[in-house]
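Task card 7
Instruction: Convert sequence to structure tokens.
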Amino acid sequence: MISYVSGIVEYVDTEKVVVDNNGIGIAVFMTNDDLSVIGEGEEIKIHTYFNVKEDAMQLYGFLNKESLELFKLLLTVSKVGPKGALSILSTCPAEMLKMSIVSGDAKTIATANGIGAKTAERVVLELKDKIEIEGVEDFVGDTSVADSTFANDVVDALVELGYSKSEALSTVKRIEKTDDMSEEDLLKKALIELG
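Output:
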């Protein structure tokens, strides 16, 4: 098993990077987000998953171990292979995917290329108990706002306005809350941030 690849980036294309490691060009399939921050000629270390099939051997890689672990977790879901898992992580980066799974937001996951509604629902169903995000259920808990129910009401309002539940949750979670903030204030700030 190949745990990681390091070397100099030879070139980057739409779905993979080729890394020169002591004169050997190693192709690694990666997410769009990871590919967008890699430049030719730079030294890089990619955490990898080695997939062996009857007709191919492929490396899938990530710039951080958390994304790799999430990728491996997605592979445990029936009907999700490496390309599907990579597609999901390209559409929903790690934090957004976790939020989508925990909040039951299969619609966001289904926006991934090649992932249908049933597969997205299966991802949520099979991984919901395996994903933990501190404070998702009570995501205002660590702020000074005593009553988090109005924050949940704001999330519900954003969902009614057409935003996905995970998008609404992550936006409301990012907003700095104060004791004198009203539900209306929080909704306005969330709408501005979602812009």
